[in-house]
Amino acid sequence: MVAERPFFGVGPGRIKELYPVYRQEGFVEPRVGHLHDNVVNVAAETGVPSALAYLAIVAAAFAAWPLARDRTRPALRALARGALAADAALFVAGIFEYNFGDVEVLRLMLVVLALPFAAARASGPAAPET
Fold first, then answer.
1. Which of 1, 6, 21, 84 is least buried, going by the fewest C-beta atoms within 10 A?
2. What is the pLDDT of residue 96?
3. CA distance 39 to 100
4. Band (51; pLDDT cuts 50, 70, 90)
């Protein structure tokens, strides 16, 4: 699917409909609702640029790394570490299952991704280390 339509994909929600056309001989599942990988599913549905945007969102989570190392604000540090762990877990799980397509998972991921930055902004700048 991706090789045939790399820029725009086959269209949102069309994998279930088109999978039998692309299915290779010997594959176990005759019909699927989605592909079992976030990056591959996003690329197949909406193109490689969308898959790169998904990877950019995943990479953006690691901008919280400095907050996870901030010793002057222990609560923020714990929140940032938890958010990094949750985002990493969702990304790893997304290698084996298309979890990014479930709206409840997507919303939770976006909230968890934003939490450390919102908390850092609300708590003000870090105190200088001595």
1. 21
2. 92
3. 9
4. very high
DSSP H helices in 28-73: 38-46, 48-61, 65-68
Looking at the predicted structure, is the pLDDT value of residue 17 above 60? Answer: yes
Q: Which residues have C-beta within 8 Å of that of residue 69, sequence separation ≥ 6? A: 77
The two structure tokens encoding residue 89: 């877990």
Question: Rounded distance, CA 65 to CA 48, Å?
Answer: 27
Amino acid 126 reads A
Q: What is the pTM of this model?
A: 0.80
- In this predicted structure, the answer to whether residue 111 has a pLDDT above a threshold of 60 is yes
Buried-state track 56-93, b at ≥16 Cβ within 10 A, e below 16: eebeebeebeebbebeebeebbebbbebbebbeebbee
